[in-house]
């Protein structure tokens, strides 16, 4: 515990000295890096912003002009001219002469079927009345769709305009050339992985992307919520084929005015960032070297001061330990003497009564008693349990002073079976299943079987109390060989399905008089005595617990205690 205090003090002192030295150094480094980032960021933002705004204007202008063309066609020609295929073909040829931006054109009645069609596809039969774009244009009058497959089974988007002319209600629908839209979205880039593409509100690609997928596929790039409201480029990770880890790129998102589409630009600026990165490295090296010098100075100062405190505390601790041990043993001795006196007297009476019963039975003829053999065995068991209880009280008297354990060869699984048999009745009453899980190849150990049995009995009894009712206690035994040992010992894990022990109480679980049981239900000596016994046997114990899951006590027994 004292060592932990020194470690904590050393850390706090070292941290304080290091903090005093690093704060000014880090502040200077952060200020320089921030100024560099700000200057470079403003430059990049202005360049990319100008390119993005120009690109959006070009795409918006393209879509507005196409919508205007279709509206002009719809409202400057009569219904009879538009449903006449020859007339519609001449109108389409005139439109294409001004720029080949259309793939086909059709006039559709309010029943959803073509009245006339000009184009490379066989679309005379399809019924559009159930399609999304038909519903939208009937509702809005003018509609620019997202990319969809439709009856063509290939990606395309359309511009549709509805007109009421006398008794006729019809829709003029034109398919826009996807290549024209792709050429507007794409451009020549400086970076090898720069990219630009259009996506709809659901993140579906409306134009071809170099690295984020094909048309009508889900965009691989993850954009933050509200990305189009960003005034400056923001950083996004992309997987570079030449790099194992994702590389950060700059991205801009611009909404279009005609549709709900957004223009996404991803810019590879690693080339322009190279001089800035070199300057950053120099600043980082300066900060790191300064931090190392500060750390070395703080470490030397801390070590010198802690060593002095340790020497002084060691002298004081020797005096305090002697006084504390004397007080502890005096108090514990008084309590143990009283308990032993109160328990040993009735135990002697019980032992004498059991012996008297055996003497009386010896004088009788077995044939005169129906249960003669059972009575003899019962008297013998009473004497055995009295001996065990007497041994426990004697070991309680030995708590707090060094006791030389007796050594003998012992098979641990057999000792566990015997211990479990003592508590089997209580386990059955509580409907608790004690599961034995003994690994093969577990050998014997040389130890004090009586004291070790007390440990097992105490821990299993605590497990019964922790489970309460309707649970499981698992006793697992396997070989265990500590580093440098000649022969293998064994490891015993006793696990229960109780409520578990909170983490703040685990550190004190082996302290004398500390208990997790309700007031009046425990003395707090059981685990402390177990710890003392195992320490005297050269063994070790530790606990693992999780609230709501259960608790495990792990006992590591060497083959023989090191002398």
The total of helices stands at 11
CATH homologous superfamily heading of the domain at 405-557: Histidine kinase-like ATPase, C-terminal domain
Helix content range: 40-55%
Largest sheet: 5 strands, antiparallel
Distance between the termini: 26 Å
Question: Which residues sit in consecutive blocks of at least 5 with pLDDT less than 50?
Answer: 399-403
Order of helix and strand elements from N to C terminus: HHHEEHEEEHEEEEHHEHEEHEEHHEE
Mean pLDDT: 80
Radius of gyration of CA atoms, rounded to a whole number: 44 Å
Major sheet strand order: 2-1-5-4-3
DSSP summary, beta strand count: 16
Structural class: alpha+beta
CATH class of the domain at 405-557: Alpha Beta
By CATH, the architecture of the domain at 405-557 is named 2-Layer Sandwich
Shape: elongated
Q: How large is the share of residues in beta strands?
A: 15-25%
CATH topology of the domain at 405-557: the name is: Heat Shock Protein 90
Please give a structural write-up:
The protein is an alpha+beta fold and 563 residues long. Among the domains are: 127 residues, Beta-Lactamase (2-Layer Sandwich); 104 residues, PAS domain (Beta-Lactamase); 153 residues, Heat Shock Protein 90. The protein contains eleven helices and 16 strands. The strands form four sheets. The protein has a five-stranded antiparallel sheet, with helices on both faces. Strands 11-13-14-16-15 form a five-stranded mixed sheet, covered by helices on one side. The radius of gyration is 44 Å and the shape is elongated.
